[in-house]
């Protein structure tokens, strides 16, 4: 593998005999071996989300494995495949990786995606348009609470003085004291 250093010190691979993604192949799910020390967990709910995604769009991302069939990336997808009773899945093989490279990539594959941010304005537009055309938003992985927060367009900008209500213009909220029975305006007590 030839490497070239750039002016800012970054090393860029300029040529490579092959990449794992160059040669996808089908492997039986039963032959794939989960990494026993995988620090990433997958709840039943999340596996169900992945399974729903596979049902909707098919298999879009191969499982990354080592030469022995050990899973490096794609544990959740394999769990979803088992749930869906899929017998074989697309895989790519990381050939010649050291044990340290495999172990580090198990972590990097999960963490690097989490380091990204959302463009909230673009996200709201995309979700809003999907909602408008009736697409099932459960398939995109956001919880109902997250979708609610994203789609609720409250305007919290301060209003003009004339927009503000005055406490003396509000209808009284008369309550009786449970101890002495005296009636009083509770809104004056809240202020």
Structural write-up:
The protein has helices at residues 44-57, 75-83, 99-114, 120-132, 144-151, 186-190, and strands spanning 2-5, 11-15, 25-28, 63-65, 71-73, 88-93, 174-176, 183-185. It is of the alpha+beta class and 191 residues long. Among the domains are: 19-114, Conserved hypothetical protein from pyrococcus furiosus pfu- 392566-001, ParB domain (Alpha-Beta Complex), CATH 3.90.1530; 120-151, no CATH class. Strand 1 and strand 2 form a beta hairpin. The N and C termini lie far apart (72 Å).
Task: Name the features.
191 residues, Conserved hypothetical protein from pyrococcus furiosus pfu- 392566-001, ParB domain
Explain briefly what this protein structure is.
With 191 residues, the chain is of the alpha+beta class. It is built from 6 helices and 8 strands.
Oligomeric state = single chain
Tally of contiguous helical segments: 6
| Helix percentage | 25-40%
Unreliably modeled segments: none
**Which architecture name of the domain at 19-114 does CATH use?**
Alpha-Beta Complex
Strand content: 15-25%
